[in-house]
Amino acid sequence: MRHYPALTAAQRQELSQVIKKSESADEVRRAQAIIMISNATGAETVQAIESLTGYQRRQAFDLRRNYFNEGIKTVIDKRKGKPKELLSPKQRKEIVEILKTKTPQDLGYAKDHWTTCFLGDWIKKSYNVKYRSRTSFYVIFKQAKFTYHKPGRIYRNHNEKEIRRWRKRIKPKLEEFWLQKDTIILCEDEMILTTETTVQKVWLPQGQYPKIECSNGSRKRKNVYGFLNVKTGQECAFKTDYQTMYVTAQVLKDLRKIYPTQKIVLFWDNAGWHKGSVAQDQIKTDGNIEVVNFPNYAPKENPQEYVWESGRSHCTHNEFIEDIDSATDGLVKYFNETKFKYSLLELSANS
Q1: Does residue 240 carry a pLDDT above 50?
Q2: How confident is the model at residue 56 (pLDDT cuts 50, 70, 90)?
Q3: Contact status, residue 153 vs residue 299, Cβ threshold 8 Å
Q4: If phi over 0 gives left and psi between -120 and 50 gives alpha, with beta otherwise, what is residue 161?
Q5: Alpha carbon 233 to chain centroid distance?
Q6: Strand 289-293 relative to strand 235-240, pairing
Q7: Residues 135 and 178 in one domain
Q8: pLDDT digits over 107-165, tens only?
Q9: Is 313 strand, coil or helix?
Q10: Considering only 16-25, 80-89, 172-181, 282-291, which range has the smallest mean pLDDT?
Q11: What CATH number does the domain containing 304 carry?
């Protein structure tokens, strides 16, 4: 079997220009397949090629071979003139209007958010047109001024009415605490850090495909207790082995060393280790901690949740964690050295 050399910088640039500028979905798919198969190192990459371009492994290799032998004409559509449109301008306009005014549920589907799958099925049923590439659907979504979003999560037992009542009841008390100079307002939560590699999307030049080393051994974990001072934006984070009422009591003792004389107003959730007798006894023994519980199933009310997101984004996403203790120490250091101006009921360090 003949082995072809790696794509040169000029060839990559040539193919990237096709991807960037061509109005032909077929030309874009061919260029993508050639670049991706040239970078392929495993089964997952080959599957990604088929998913993105519709070309199977053998077809992608054939495209690459023809490109090396014949050049860019392998990629460019052979027919002259503008490629025939599968949908007429009128039909495209009708589809765009449907996207703007209807949800998939309105058209008999199970979900209320549009996907390429739903759009493709509806176009097939309505116009007897079947596109081979998702790129064509992306163009239609773009014409309708849609953007791609990953859905957020919401708890099944989330009760928005209860949360609104909580806000209305707590906001006046919070404003009173805010004006008390010797009162510290802390929002608390816990997170778990494991050796499992977590990933997030990154932007790269076309044709580059990142790989992140992952652990395939037993998963190790550490816990972090975090307290955000919403008046100042200062974070106090503590590394622990567990989340229990005993650990919680000890963390509260350590917290008191940081705020030795101030009154602490402590906002936290209804976790069992918060309500446990040992933790509650420590609060009573302290004598200068007032607890305010967040409403159930409402994590986004707690600004400490956003502190966790910032830490993971800056320190642990797309990172291979070999030493869980060292990684946790680095994360805690980031928390304790960074100011976070997230708000609690519209009040923050900027207020």
Answers
A1: yes
A2: confident
A3: no
A4: alpha
A5: 24
A6: unpaired
A7: no
A8: 888 777 888 888 988 999 899 888 877 778 888 888 888 876 655 565 566 678 889 99
A9: helix
A10: 80-89
A11: 3.30.420.10
Is 80 a domain residue? no
Do 174 and 283 belong to one domain?
A: yes
**What's the pLDDT at 77?**
80
Strand ranges for the chain from DSSP E: 183-194, 221-229, 235-240, 263-268, 289-293
Its domain, for residue 47, covers 9-74
Residues 36 and 181 occupy one common structural domain: no
Give the list of residues 6+ apart from residue 13 with CB closer than 8 angstroms, or none. none
Encoded amino acid at 14, one letter: E
Closest CA to 343 of 166, 175, 164: 175
Domain count for the chain: 3
Percent of the chain at pLDDT above 90?
36
- The answer to whether position 149 is within a domain reads no
Note whether residue 285 is domain-resident. yes
What pLDDT is recorded for position 179?
Answer: 92
Residues 97 and 38 reside in one and the same domain: no
Per-residue tokens: 245: 């009422």
Average pLDDT for residues 245-252, to the nearest whole number?
A: 96
283 to each of 88, 275, 290, how far by Cα in Å?
71, 10, 8
Residue 195 counted as domain residue: yes
